[in-house]
Amino acid sequence: MGRGPCCDKDGVKKGPWTPEEDQLLVQYIQKHGLGCWRSLPKNAGLLRCGKSCRLRWTNYLRPDIKRGPFSPAEEATIVHLHGMLGNKWAYMASQLPGRTDNEIKNFWNTHLKKRLTSIGPKLQINQSSSSSEPINIKCESPSTRHMVQWESARVEAEARLSMQSLLLKSKSTAKSHPDIFLQLWKSEVGEAFRIIEEKDGKTSESIVSDTPLSIKNEPVLLDDTVTPMPSKTTTVIDTTQEQEEDTCKPNEDVMTVSGSIGSNEFADSTDTALKLLLDFPGGNDMEFIGEESEFFQLP
DNA sequence: AAATCCACCAACCGCTATAAT
DNA sequence: CATTATAGCGGTTGGTGGATT
């Protein structure tokens, strides 16, 4: 049969961790490194299940955890990525070194989402008109406007993608690409971005690394005190540098990924798509929606 | 000063994919 | 190959502390 149980449910402590428990866990990991979470609690003398230990370590005790408020640059990254990917907290965490998925998720739910909701009614999106008038978005701050625009774009993209997938299924002809980014890039959303890119005739910098990356996170060893880190990090961007502007500046400080991706062609196309989609064209962030009226039309 | 409300966040829960037996 | 545990992820909950009434 399969493996033995990870922990018997009885006699397992739950709830907040005490400093003593934290100390036991940290000491054990510093001494033995990361290995089997299943056996860790017993070996470390903890009355916790392995899952709880893993969460405590990854979300709180890891030495590379960055505490404190999110910088504007980090905020912008989250908004960008959420606009693109939705609730992919783990992926966002991989792009924000020192931040955990849990932290990002909490930050989104308690700050960004609220802000988005609060300014929601103020939005005046002129979709009824078939004219080429740009969407009229009224928001207090550029960052908020930015966020709303990305959310709008994401909702549109999702709607269109689901519609497309329905159509594809009904036709049973074309195979949908397994990669969501490539799907998105191949959709009109990506098309609209490409048009703008060409119009502008410039290659804008992206907050997302040019280094090939994959959603399937490859392990990478961080230069840290505790040896084998349970790193979910693949390609990381150093956003520790405070960036006052809302817009994303080019970031040269990119860590090297130790594990290369096997299928580079696929990964590259995915990354290019993601990179380009995360780049804002021109001055008006959502200009392409107004210009490309077919964006709102079904295929 | 007490009660209530609210925001924040750590931790848990449940699900899925993958790995081990 | 089937079964089961593990790891990882996203959603949700509950405790805590500060603000407000």
Structure explained in plain terms:
This protein has helices spanning 19-32, 40-44, 50-61, 72-85, 89-95, 101-119, 142-171, 180-186, 188-200, 264-278, 287-291. With 299 residues, it is an all-alpha fold. The chain has two domains: 19-61, Arc Repressor Mutant, subunit A (Orthogonal Bundle), CATH 1.10.10; 72-296, no CATH class. The longest helix has 30 residues, at 142-171. Residues 1-8, 121-140, 169-182 and 184-299 have low confidence and may be disordered. It binds a DNA duplex (21 and 21 nucleotides) through residues 1-6, 14-17, 36-38, 50-52, 54-56, 58-60, 87-90, 101-103, 105-107, 109-111, 114, 217, 232.
Report the sheet with the most strands, covering strand number, pairing sense and barrel closure.
none
Low-confidence stretches: 1-8, 121-140, 169-182, 184-299
Mean pLDDT: 57
Number of helices: 11
Helix amount, in percent?
A: 40-55%
Summarize the structure.
This protein is an all-alpha fold. Helices cover 47% and strands 0% of the residues.
Strand and helix map with partners:
Elements: H1 19-32, H2 40-44, H3 50-61, H4 72-85, H5 89-95, H6 101-119, H7 142-171, H8 180-186, H9 188-200, H10 264-278, H11 287-291
The structure holds a DNA duplex (21 and 21 nucleotides).
InterPro entries: Homeodomain-like_sf, Myb_dom, Myb_TF_plants, SANT/Myb
GO molecular function: DNA binding
GO cellular component, one term: nucleus
Key structural traits:
299 residues, mainly alpha, Arc Repressor Mutant, subunit A, 47% helix, disordered C terminus, DNA-binding, nucleus, DNA binding, SANT/Myb, Myb_dom, repeat
